[in-house]
Amino acid sequence: MDRQLIGRFAIAGIAVAAVTAAVVILGTDPAPAPVAVSAPAAPVPQRAPDRTVTRTLAPTTSTAPVAPAPSGWQITYELAGSGTATIVYDDNGLGLVHQELSVPLPWRKTLTWPKTAVAPTVQLMGQSSGRIECRISVNGVLARSAKAADGEVANCAGRLS
Predict the structure, then answer these.
(1) Contacts of 7 (CB under 8 A, 6+ apart)
(2) What's the pTM?
(3) Contact (CB, 8 A) for 115 and 69
(4) How far lies 134's CA from each of 25, 31, 36, in Å?
(5) For labelling, which of 18, 41, 113, 154 has a CA lying 20 to 30 Å from the CA of 81?
(6) Residue among 108, 111, 109 nearest 73 (CA)
(7) 10 φ, ψ (degrees, to nearest 5)
(8) Could you give the C-alpha distances from 135 to 18, 30, 58, 88, 110, in angstroms and in order?
(9) What is the pLDDT of residue 161?
């Protein structure tokens, strides 16, 4: 016999022996038993709508510094106009914003933020099919305001410093 043929038979024999040894050592697993799945007891709650997160915008108007209230900052956002608007506003002074769609105008929201060493950043943007005006008051004092023509964005934003 040819030496190459003998070598090939040896390799094939070793492979068969290895496979046989693996089957014997590992054994054969029976098919897994089926698992009964029952329906959940309560319906799955619906997911809340996604929130839009944007960066803080630079101030659009300059105003005098506004001091924080003794217990914190009282921020009042207002949009004046008619119809409905898309509204984006900062609800904690850290630059993270919320978006609300098809909000009836006029709209107003008052928030209280904890007192901080650094004045917070405020942001309010509104867009409507008609004319719209945004206003931000801090501790009862008007800090920012802006008007927009039909279909444009009214933007009041900046650091209260």
Answers:
(1) none
(2) 0.55
(3) yes
(4) 76, 67, 58
(5) 113
(6) 111
(7) -65, -45
(8) 80, 71, 16, 13, 12
(9) 61
Give bridge partners of residue 98 from the DSSP assignment.
89
Q: Which residue bears the tokens 């698992």? A: 35
pLDDT tens column, 8-61: 666 766 766 666 665 566 665 555 556 565 555 566 566 656 555 444 444 444
Which of 1-5, 105-109, 112-116 is least confident? 1-5
Which residues, including other chains, have CB under 8 Å from residue 56's CB and lie 6 or more apart? 90, 95, 121, 123, 157, 159
Tokens of 4: 């190459």
Amino acid at 60: T
Which two tokens mark 22? 């693996």
The position carrying tokens 């709508």 is: 49
Which of 60, 85, 51 has the alpha carbon at shortest distance from 136?
Answer: 60
161 closest CA partner among 124, 116, 119, 123: 119
User: For residues 144 and 153, is the Cβ–Cβ distance under 8 A?
Assistant: no
